[in-house]
Amino acid sequence: MASGTGVPSLGPKGFLTVFTPQMEDVIARMQDEKNGIPIRTVKSFLSKIPSVFSGSDIVQWMIKNLNIEDQVEALHLGTLMAAHGYFFPISDHVLTLKDDGTFYRFQTPYFWPSNCWEPENTDYAVYLCKRTMQNKARLELADYEAESLARLQRAFARKWEFIFMQAEAQAKVDKKRDKIERKILDSQERAFWDVHRPVPGCVNTTEVDIKKSSRMKNPHKTRKSVYGPQNDVRTHSPTHTPAPEIFTKYYFPLLFQITYWGGQLDRHRLKMSKVAESLLAYTEQYVEYDPFITPTDPSNPWISDDTTVWELEARCVFLDCLFGFPLYTVVSDCVCLSPVRSQVSRG
To answer: 292-310 pLDDT, tens per residue?
Structure first.
């Protein structure tokens, strides 16, 4: 993980499933009113920055409460937790921890990795489109976000009107909120997308190697909309949108697989020894009539220099013995039928 290769292989369930409860337990302890990190509102020029704490506060708290003696180790652990989006810098898209006075804010539990987020590109398009509608310096799109918006607009050209309507409806809902609440929610939403659509060059903690993904077949990580049902423009805040049920999504595919494998179990199958025995018996029975194995008399002019068979025009010399086999064998052989056709035409 520290090498920046994405999610490590730490068991069949993956990194998030194994270590998410431990990380969230640490975050819950950090937010404890008595023994947690002090959260305060900081005055900055003519405005206030609500619900923040510094990076040095996190490092000192870890050293004190997690039995960590090395400051570098505490900084590394904090960076890993920030990369998963549990807390984030309020003025930077790069999710990393700095041991200085940089201000950080806790993420709302709705956006925690334990909710198994795998958001759609349409959700990201709604988010970026909504940002362009809000004329505020802190909400201006970065260069990579503007490029992503242009790319998504081309990809979803046919449904862009619907995406724009959804973003417009969300922007109207956001305007009705309290100023401080809106500022906090905007930063939390931005941090969520910094985790799932990170800055180019940064580690994407949500990526899983495709081979591991196909091997795990984890049904718990689902594609669910961040902003609720896609066919309803009257969306609510991400912090109040209920998670959709996954039962109906997996019921029919699983039912199909159960039916298919049940049918496969009921199929009649022969043992390999029986199949080989039948094949040998068939070969021994027909080997006499295979000209590639048993030489014919006269010889086949196509594989030898002997043209006797053509000179004698005796095409049916070697066919009399074939009539000892079932009728379908004779009928299926065009060579056997040629004398019959000759007799019919003469008659």
So the answer is: 788 777 777 777 888 777 7
Question: Which residue's entry shows tokens 């309020």?
Answer: 90
- pLDDT tens track for 108-133: 999 888 877 788 899 999 999 998 88
What distance in Å separates the CA atoms of residue 162 and residue 234, rounded to the nearest whole number?
Answer: 12
Cα–Cα dist 208/66, whole Å: 29
What residues does each domain of the chain span?
14-254
Q: For residue 2, how many other CB atoms are within 10 A of its CB?
A: 9
Amino acid residing at 171: A
d(CA 78, CA 34): 21
- Which residue shows structure tokens 């990580």? 221
| Sign of the CA dihedral with 324 first, then 325, 328, and 330 last | negative
3-state helix, strand, coil in the chain (%, to 5): 55, 5, 40
Alpha-carbon torsion, ordered 105, 70, 62, 68, to 10 deg: 150
* Pair 118, 124: CB distance under 8 Å: no
Query: DSSP for 16-27?
Result: HHHHHHHHHHHH
Cα 95 from Cα 194, distance rounded (Å) = 7
**What CA–CA distance (Å, rounded) separates 284 from 185?**
81
CATH fold group of domain 14-254 = Arc Repressor Mutant, subunit A (1.10.10)
